[in-house]
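Q: Predict the bound structure with 5-phosphoarabinonic acid.
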Amino acid sequence: MVKVDLSGARQFFTTAGPDYAAAARAHQRLAEKNGLGYDFTGWTELPQRIKDTELDAIVATAEKIRARSQALVVIGIGGSYLGARGAIELLKPMPGKGDPRVFFMGNTLSVDALNDTIAALGDMDFDVNVISKSGTTLEPAVSFRIFRELLAKKYGDKANDHIFATTDAKRGVLKSLADKYGWPCFVVPDDVGGRFSVLSAVGLLPMAVAGIDVRKVIDAAIEELKALDLRSPENPAWQYAAARQQLYGKGYGIEILGCYEPSFRFMAEWWKQLYGESEGKDGKGIFPASVEFTADLHSMGQFIQQGPRTLMESIVRFTESRSSFPFPVEAEDADGLNYLAGRDISEVCRVAADAVREAHVSGGVPNLVIEVPKRDEEGFAALVCFFEVACAISGYMSQVNPFDQPGVEAYKKNMFRMLGKPGAK
Ligand code: PA5
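A: Predicted complex:
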């Protein structure tokens, strides 16, 4: 299970400390499904449900794609792509031998990004996994039409065999198209919102195609969710949720999530959506931002150390590295680095992380550490479950509905009106 270390935040707490009684009430509302947005809490049972239903079909489809294609184009935006991208970049930052490349499209309206992806795809054999719960989101719909045309040019009347849809079980444009053209369909469950859907087919199919062992992910997630049901201040999800809420109450309105693994970058993007969409409403919310250490210490480090004291910092640390590299000794020591010789670079990184923590805390930045044993399938599952449960508890603690996102409609209305969509006002 994930461990949370609050020792770098304690000096910023009130004397009463984090409000675990409120965390307990929030957890109870989540577990009893009687809080705001309760009908979107199906993610709490999702891993077991997927294991009992679609998991075999997801793995079989991924194997088929891996056997025949060098690439998978995943078309989706927001919760319909960030989790898969986070997982793939975290666990498979470099595709292994025989692993298809996974391209992510439909998350932008940039024509250059579209053309660059088409160029990178070249003459590779490819499949398309289009993912949209509503089926009406403009960005993926635009990309999908274009990639359907590319498939038709490449595969002629076999093009439909290369399309896999992940969408609502019964409704929507994408579901109707899938039924019309016979594309195999996977389900975005009714009771799971996009940003909580990574452990459904939404995340699992692209992950399996990339060569991630999704059975391990799901088994670990089942165990993790059981462990996170602990009703006690020992629960790391309570600790994280209650600490953030306490710090927010004291004026720390921005949370930066950092990690010392560059491969964590898209997990941080996933986390930003999870927390930003869940908590930023009714005039409330902690603004989620992210940094990549040590790189950003040379760009954002100054601001973190001495800028306005409204930042809290949460650092994800992996206890063990996946590999090692002892730093070499050099007879002449011309670069003066022999004081590091013989130490593993992972140890140098750990020391750097401790030094940064000490500096930031003494500079007035509360520091929370979220520690995961390893950057592997189990570690990924642990992080996802931990962040999801903590997000729901934190949202309920701040009296918002953590499962809706009414604010994202505003720009869409304007855009459809300006583009002249029939019926748009
Ligand atoms: O979390 C959410 O609900 C959103 O990010 C959606 O996932 C995103 O807007 C894409 O929606 P859809 O899957 O309906 O295309």
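A: The chain has a mean pLDDT of 97.
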